Amino acid sequence: MGELSADGRQHLEEALQNNDPSEKDFHIRQVLQVWGVDDLPKELK
């Protein structure tokens, strides 16, 4: 995996600061969707 971008870090910080579970989920999913793209199997790219 590569290094987390500034946007990714911002989403993680917002997830940590937010008390609403759905907002935490949103920010964490944003990071995972962008960061995990490099690790998809070839047939899914």
Key descriptive features of the protein:
45 residues, flat
What does this structure look like?
The protein is mainly alpha-helical and 45 residues long. It has one domain. It has helices spanning 6-17, 21-35. The chain is flat and about 35 Å long. It starts with 5 loop residues before the first helix and ends in a 10-residue tail after the last helix.
Describe the protein's topology.
Blueprint: H1 6-17, H2 21-35
Helix pairs in contact: 1-2
Summarize the structure.
The chain is mainly α.
Strand content: under 5%
Which structural class best describes the helix and strand composition?
Answer: mainly alpha
Number of helices: 2
Please outline the major beta sheet: none
Straight-line distance between termini:
16 Å
Number of strands: 0
Q: Which oligomeric form is depicted? A: single chain
Shape: flat
